[in-house]
Amino acid sequence: MAKPKVFLCARLPVAAEEFLADRARLEIHRGKGYISRRALMLAVRTAEGLIPTVANLVDSELMDAAPRLRVIANYGVGYDNIDTDAAAARGLPVTNTPGVLTETTADLAWTLVMASARRVGEGDRLVRSGRWEGWQPTQMLGQDIHGRTLGILGMGRIGAAMARRARGFGMKILYHDIKRLSVRAERVAGMRYASLQGLLKRSDFVSVHTPLTGNTHHLIGAGELRLMKPTAILVNTSRGPVVDEKALAAALKGGRIAAAGLDVFEREPAVEPALRKLENVVLLPHLGSASVETRTAMGLLAAKNCLAALAGRKPPNLVNSETWRGRRK
Questions:
Q1: FRET label pair with 306: which of 106, 122, 197, 225, CA 20 to 30 Å apart?
Q2: Where are the alpha helices (DSSP H) in 145-283?
Q3: By the 8 A CB rule, do 173 and 191 touch?
Q4: Pick from 108, 118, 117, 151: nearest CA to 237
Q5: Is the pLDDT at 4 greater than 50, yes or no?
Q6: Is cis: bond before 269, omega within 30 of 0?
Q7: pLDDT of 110-142, one tens digit each?
Q8: Edge-to-edge order in the sheet of strand 94-95
Q9: How many CB atoms lie within 10 A of CB 239?
Q10: What is the spatial distance between Cα 316 and Cα 233, in angstroms, rounded to a whole number?
């Protein structure tokens, strides 16, 4: 039996590519940047499996250009880059890679909390510039993290992992989510539920972990930033459009909040120019899951999702399970 044809929109860690290559006819976009829309439209014409990244738009137009397509196996836990309604209408299973990146992404979010609070980026730039004149009692004073209040927006896997880390720093923990946990779960986790407004007003650090939906687009805008303490720090490792970058730049420049740490942006890889000019923001190139172990695990999970669907088996991480109609050949 001929192996199915699978197209990768970007290079994956070696182990994941080798796993796929042993089981499918693999084609890969090997360019350094994102694959162009035109190139992707051409590539999917003969693909049976598609493994996009969160940077690749998979809409109805692309699906119509892929008459042989039988599965869309996203490389990433978020899948707002895929029109799942259009996929459902065509009977196309869509999968993602949850779970394997939880702890690594929480590590990165915590890195941004610490780097923003202690002005790590500024300090690094000062030393590299050759302008550092030695230790001074009032030089580059930042903020303590221990004993402060952390507000977590979105209590999914990564939000819960952030809460576990915060307990180690003796922090008070507030959270907001569209679904409140049970009183017992809150007590065991050592955190309290708050409204969005209440969380923003009371938190010293706000860490964003919500998916991108119509309701969460610009969830943090000018009005929300005005509610935060002038000493507060905002961290976003979820999706860029959850935060209004122009409003954030204005708040940082005007001293309405103290600092921010961003791993995601509204129009990646473009970054709001005003943010790039500010010292009180740490900017990272979407490194949330960027460890060898985690990116490899993501690749293997995406591959297994893809191959399961191509073999007619229900993929383990199907996000539109209601459309599964059994074996697809």
A1: 106
A2: 157-168, 183-189, 196-202, 222-227, 245-253, 273-276
A3: yes
A4: 108
A5: yes
A6: yes
A7: 999 999 999 999 999 999 999 999 999 999 999
A8: 25-28, 5-8, 49-51, 71-73, 94-95
A9: 24
A10: 37
Structural contact between residues 324 and 93, judged by C-beta atoms closer than 8 angstroms: yes
Of 241, 239, 231, 186, the closest CA to residue 205 belongs to 231
Q: What is the largest CA-CA distance in the chain?
A: 72
29, 70, 148, 286: the active-site residue: 286
Strand partners, 7: 27, 50
**Measured between alpha carbons, how far is 197 from 207 in angstroms, rounded to an integer?**
14
Phi, psi of 151, deg, nearest 5: -105, 125
| 329 band by pLDDT with thresholds 50, 70 and 90 | very low
CA pair distance 262, 5, nearest whole angstrom: 37
pLDDT class of 325 with cuts at 50, 70, 90: low
* 8 Å CB contact between 151 and 176: yes
Whether 176 sits among the annotated catalytic residues: the reply is no
Identify residue 239 by its one-letter amino acid code: R
Q: Which residues pair with 207 in a beta bridge?
A: 152, 235
User: CA 54, CA 51: separation in Å to the nearest integer?
Assistant: 10
Q: Which of 70, 148, 209, 239 is catalytic?
A: 239
Q: Would you call 205 exposed, middle or buried from its count of C-beta atoms within 10 A (0-12, 13-18, 19+)?
A: buried
User: Is residue 286 flagged as an active site residue?
Assistant: yes
Q: Which two tokens stand for residue 51?
A: 């493994």
Q: What's the token pair of residue 326?
A: 């059994």
- In the numeric block, the tokens 């954030």 are attached to 248
Asked whether the beta carbons of 235 and 205 are under 8 A apart, the reply is yes
Q: Which two structure tokens, joined as six digits, stand for 142?
A: 């930042």
Active-site position among 17, 103, 122, 268: 268
- Which helix (H) or strand (E) covers residue 16, if one does? helix 14-21
- The answer to whether the beta carbons of residues 74 and 94 sit under 8 Å apart is yes
Round to the nearest angstrom and report the end-to-end CA distance of the chain.
Answer: 12
C-beta of residue 120 within 8 angstroms of C-beta of residue 110: no
Handedness of CA 228, 233, 161, 272 (dihedral sign): positive
